[in-house]
Amino acid sequence: ELGVERRFVPESCPRAVRPGDFVRYHYLGAFPDGTRFDSSYDRGTTFNVFVGKGQLIAGMDQALVGMCVNERRFVKIPPKLAYGSEGVPGVIPPDAVLHFDVLLIDLWNSEDEVQVQTYFKPEKCPRTVQVSDFVRYHYNGTFLDGTLFDSSHNRMRTYDTYVGIGWLIPGMDQGLLGMCVGEKRIITIPPFLAYGEDGDGKEIPGQASLVFDVVLLDLHNPKDGIAIENQLVPESCERRSQTGDFLRYHYNGTLLDGTLFDSSYSRNRTYDTYVGKGYVIAGMDEGLLGVCTGEKRRIIIPPHLGYGEEGRGKIPGSAVLVFDIHVVDFHNPSDSVSITVHYKPSNCTVLSKKGDYLKYHYNASLLDGTLLDSTHSLGKTYNIVLGSGQVVLGMDMGLQDMCVGERRTVVIPPHLGYGEDGVEGEVPGSAVLVFDIELLELVSGLPEGYMFVWNGEVSPNLFEEIDQNHDGEVLLEEFSEYIQTQVETGKGKLAPGFDFEKIVKNMFTNQDRDGNGKVTAEEFKLKDQEAKEEHDEL
Q1: What percent of the chain has pLDDT over 90?
Q2: Which domains are delineated in the chain?
Q3: pTM score, whole prediction
Q4: In the chain, at which end, N or C, are there fewer CB atoms within 10 A of the end residue's CB?
Q5: What residues does the PPIase FKBP-type domain cover (predicted)?
């Protein structure tokens, strides 16, 4: 009678051979004395056949029923269930008992379909694979017995393809549908939905069932535009970015599976760029429009609006990009200084002008509220001569026409502030500055171009009065002493806010026309006299 000994049975046996199934198995065929008469191993290929359809000797047809993939059976087949009294001339003698050592490699049925087993699925699945989508995934490809035939992990590169349009074997086209990014599933494909009777001519033999362990990393459709998810929008948003604006923002850049590829935070510096001008990838150009200062948003960019099929650096080809951005500030190159008055005294008659000496308090911050500097913390005012270049141009403009006691906020774009370079360690490059100012004191300046003026009539013998030793020459010491006396007695006034010695030396140098360190009566002229002579010459 037929003898079947189960020498190895795998722990997992999801499916056993039934009549009508197609099997692939290896075997050793021998006579009872151990003499081998046949072996599939010697041929280097499995024996492939339908079970229960008369394609095998009767004993093998029966012995294979109930086998699991990877099961090993030792089968004894009597002649009546083998080749009987005739045998096989030259191979198997008449009335021979046959012994077969059988290892089942593969099993499928013509009615099989693609089997999908999901063993991990993310909690959030906003989108699943549909026909015509483009996907990037990793996989291990094995046969039913677990033998590895291919792996994208070994190549350290995802498999990138369209789904449902014939770029894949039919079974994989079906098995990928409905997957989420991050999902892991096992896709089992019968050969008639894979590489069929011929295999692939390389690693995959004919009639082989295939098992793919797949993790989906990326998913998009060529028709996709960018997707924007607002995470934080400030309650107050007076202005939104437009084409041509210059933005400073922080970002984390990841792939769809969460892999970080870049971060401005790690460099401790914002990314600064124009918007809508092609300075950044097309998807980011679009995604940065309409943002407020302080806004946080997520911008999801398909590869055709990102780095395309080639990728860049750590970004693989055909990758969907996810940018979590935080807008720090923005401005337009056409912006001027913005002034908002919060308080103005009722008796506001004297307004600041160029040349005036001002004392004021301020808090300086960035648009996002980051404090840069404060005179209050130093316990003293900031003192300048307005319009003399002692502060950035935007501050010179913002302090104009201000009265003592007034409080205002001055917003200065970078081209009127510290420009692209900023101040190392203090003010970032291309930063918009916000100054909250209170003017505490104003000393009126002199007319433009004057460093000293007389409060009364000028002596007709001015040179003689300065030349105290009457030697016809005035030295710097004499000149300085005379000017100081005029100021102290109220007869003259120096431009406020400047160093006395520097002003006097500058005035003296203007009079010392031949540069010999002495001023003679011929060289000495008042400013209105100089202007008259220049006019006469013209």
Answers
A1: 79
A2: 3-108 (3.10.50.40), 115-220 (3.10.50.40), 227-331 (3.10.50.40), 338-443 (3.10.50.40), 452-520 (1.10.238.10)
A3: 0.78
A4: C
A5: 20-108, 132-220, 244-331, 355-443
